[in-house]
Amino acid sequence: MMGVLAASSHAIAQTAQQPAAPAPVAAMETCFTCHGENGVSRVPTYPTLAGQKVDYLIRQMSVFRQSQDKISSVPENGAKPLASRFDPLMAHVTAALSDGEVSRIAATLAQLPCDGGKTEAAPISQPVKPQVAQRCDVCHGEVGVSSAGNVPNIAGQQRGYLRRQLLIIRENAYGAASRESELWRTHPIMERQAARLSIEEVDMLAQYYATLDCRTTARP
Length: 220
Prior knowledge:
Helix content is about 45%, strand content about 5%. By secondary structure, the protein is an all-alpha fold. It has a two-stranded antiparallel ribbon.
């Protein structure tokens, strides 16, 4: 999941590895307002945060905090960061968070069960994997759960959210200019993949990964 942003994220990640106080109650309640009770979203376009990777959550909150005019911090050499995104709501919500609060929120969310604590066993059979999903395996894992700390789990994620993010990244890859206060996201690796996707393939990928069990263990 680099310049100033990478340095900042690394510093916060180090803090996350140390014993930390519980995340601020008010901040967690704010998260749950949109992302669902205990971080499990019930809104198709809002992602579930429960059980997500600590490093990934820290990086995304760091990007949102530092986003200005739809771009995150730019290193002194002028190189564009690996990944940038803008969301007016998230930029507002994260603006006042300290590094320590970001770290504690990420650690708390990562420890929550991604399915809300279901007791039933995971399904024995997996949905049929579309051929186009094979290009996602390298980063996101064969079953949508990556072994890399900075790559998000996408198994069991909200279908509407996955579809929306793919389309946003795809549009940016085509050079589409975003309007003021419009959601914006870029990632060089994701752009190379998303640019080649048809709308039908975007729908296929979103449906497939949303159907997978988020409790699945990453495969080596």
